[in-house]
Write a structure and sequence with these properties.
By secondary structure, the protein is mainly beta. Helix content is about 5%, strand content about 50%. The chain has one helix at about 105-110; strands spanning about 1-5, 10-15, 20-25, 30-40, 45-50, 60, 70-75, 80-85, 90-100, 120, 125-130. The strands form two sheets. Strands 2, 4, 5, 6, 9, 10 and 11 form a seven-stranded mixed sheet that branches. A four-stranded antiparallel sheet has the order 1-3-8-7, with no helix packed on it. A hairpin with a 6-residue loop joins strand 5 (about 45-50) and strand 6. The longest helix has 6 residues, at about 105-110. It is globular. It starts with a strand and ends with a strand.
Length: about 130
């Protein structure tokens, strides 16, 4: 079992930056592939970024490539999402998720973007970008 708690959301003007954090507790953090997803009102939850257990492999949605950076610190059991040059369309609740490394082949095949590959989810943190 893994418990995930996100933080770092807030209100920011367009062009600004935020860094989200997701702290994991429970089973060894390094055994999990991690992902960030987001959900805007009235829309489906969508993939944002993902990172392998070692941090050596990362994936991004096209909409955030070049602006967002995912990273992890296994010693702190934390995954981060650095968000730069934020746009109003980035407004959403952001969720982190964990996928057991035993499911690695599916995670890799799907580029970390498949919601159903993830076993655990946090409660989410709100990000609002004003124009």
């Amino acid at each position: 079992q893994v418990q995930l708690v996100e933080s770092g959301g807030g209100l920011v003007q367009a062009g600004g930056s935020l860094r989200l954090s997701c702290v994991a507790s429970g089973r060894a953090f390094s055994l999990y592939f991690m992902g960030w997803f987001r959900q805007a009102p009235g829309k489906e939850r969508e993939f944002v970024a993902a990172i392998s257990w070692s941090g050596g492999t990362t994936y991004y949605a096209d909409s955030v490539k070049g602006r967002f950076t995912i990273s992890r610190d296994n010693a702190k059991s934390t995954v981060y999402l650095q968000m730069n040059n934020l746009k109003p369309e980035d407004t959403a609740v952001y969720y982190c998720a964990a996928d057991d490394y035993l499911n690695g082949s599916s995670w890799i095949k799907n580029g970390g973007a498949e919601k159903n590959d993830y076993d655990y989810w946090g409660q989410g943190t709100q990000v609002t970008v004003s124009s």
